[in-house]
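Minutes, project huddle
Topic: does the predicted pose make sense with tetrahydrodeoxyuridine bound?
PN asked that the exact inputs be recorded in the minutes so nobody has to dig through chat later. Recorded below.
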Amino acid sequence: MQDADLLAEAEAARGFAHAPYSRFQVGAALLCADGSVQRGCNVENASYPAGICAERTAISAAVARGQRRFLAIAIAGPPGVALAPCGICRQVMSEFSPDGALRVIARDAAGAPRATTIGALLPGAFGAADLDAAR
Ligand code: THU
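Predicted holo structure (tokens), as shared on screen:
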């Protein structure tokens, strides 16, 4: 699947965002190793900390369907915003991509697709190996 196609999936998912508090709607589309795509959107809550980002809803939905190997995640926010995943989402992406290879695709402020990796976004990530080292 091309990056543009995955971004289109994220943009479609953005339409389902529940973001009445921030009014910052985000969609995500996660390409799984079996070729399936799982969508997510941010889901906010009147108790603000209970809200969850689009990236983590997509990852959680995929895991609940038996997927744990992911190739790429596209994220889509408001037009004109160069969207970058938050720190918590970077940590969750890293959980399923300990080698850092997961591709993260978003549009820049001018709307052009840009791709990086979770390894570049979260160098030196804490992971399962760190827990194992203490045992
Ligand atoms: N948000 C996401 O869903 N993904 C991002 O990459 C950045 C931020 C959400 C969280 C919250 O619902 C709203 O955007 C404003 O922070």
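Observations noted during the meeting:
- The chain has a mean pLDDT of 97.
- The pocket of tetrahydrodeoxyuridine is lined by residues 19, 22, 24, 26, 42, 44, 51, 53-55, 75, 83, 85-86, 89 (CB under 6 Å).
No decisions taken; revisit at the next huddle.
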